[in-house]
Amino acid sequence: MTEKKSIAVLPGDGIGPEVVHAALEAIDALHLPLDLRFGDIGWECWREEGDPVPERTWKLLEETDACLLGAITSKPLREAEAELAEPLRGTGRRFVSPVVQLRQRLGLYANVRPVSDLENGAFDFAVIRENTEGLYAGLDFHGLDDALWNAVRHHPNAAASGPDATSVTLRLQTRFGMDRLLRFGFEYARAHGHRLLTLVDKPNVLRNSSNFLRERLELMAGEYPEIETEVLNVDAVALWMVRRPERFGVLVAENMFGDILSDLGAGVMGGLGLAPSGNIGDHGAYFEPVHGSAPGMAGQGRANPMAMLLTIGQLLDHLGMPLPAGQLREAVRTVVRARSTVTYDLGGSATTAQAAAAVADALRPAGSPQEVSA
């Protein structure tokens, strides 16, 4: 008997609670050994408590095996301050995105975005993005001190502007960070039967840092002789993801390049309403659909639950439940292919609950009783 796994379920805000509720009702048909423990995260926590990830949620995350996240709203600095409860305003509280907090505090360095053709099965690959360094490491400066100014002062545009009117963003890449990402990519390729790993960067322009990446790749590749490797420019990969997505297996990229390519992958699949993701480290993980909180759609029953359902499939794989994960993905494919009970973004008129209920029906064995969808 499969050991019961505990899941911290954080619905969040916007459309997050809707898609979480609908998806969890749908997977009841699988009778999974899961202990679902609900917690708080997101914009209301920020407004009422001054922290979008309260301490009780961190405690819940420590006590559970993995996390399922709905969606979270983020707003700019001024709006965030203005929406705080009156007693909290002017107290120095700073909104830090919950997903950034989760990734940093839990050490979730690999963002995994599966990209598959749900209708025809023509392609199935994954974009694995580094989460902790690269151009998103936070080394972003405007108004330069002497050290940074000396590094850029010879550029003619910097010389014409001066240090106070010049900005610099540093791309941080470390052996520690890239080695663990590359190893994760190789292990993912091996576990999922992919025979090609593509390192995506810009070696013809970022010559030194890209060459460093290539050297680390070449050193590690010897441990995985069954997996072919290549190094490609990010712009070329973007083109081929659109024109020939079937050529790829696992794409590994630094933070910004991976961010861009993973959203492109969602477009190749058919839209954000179909795109799942996982953020994984050595000792923790959380899984969320890519579509975000879409606060303007909240409460309308129009949100596509398929991304959340596929995200749950990814979570089940991570927890060592590949059979129900595969069943769930196949049920989603069945509904998406039929196109008779899908939401507006896929050309249908079904509500969130109706689309999820169609997946639940596809999960039930033939001849079993089916509930009438609302």
UniProtKB/TrEMBL annotation:
InterPro entries: ICDH/IPMDH (IPR050501), IsoCit/isopropylmalate_DH_CS (IPR019818), IsoPropMal-DH-like_dom (IPR024084). It comes from the Bacteria. Coiled coil: none annotated. Keywords: Manganese, Metal-binding, NAD, Oxidoreductase. Pfam families: Iso_dh. GO terms for molecular function: magnesium ion binding; NAD binding; oxidoreductase activity, acting on the CH-OH group of donors, NAD or NADP as acceptor. Its cofactor is Mg(2+); Mn(2+). SMART domains: Iso_dh (SM01329). SUPFAM superfamilies: Isocitrate/Isopropylmalate dehydrogenase-like. Residues 6-359 form the Isopropylmalate dehydrogenase-like domain. PANTHER family: D-MALATE DEHYDROGENASE [DECARBOXYLATING] (PTHR43275:SF1). This is 3-isopropylmalate dehydrogenase. It comes from Streptomyces cinnamoneus.
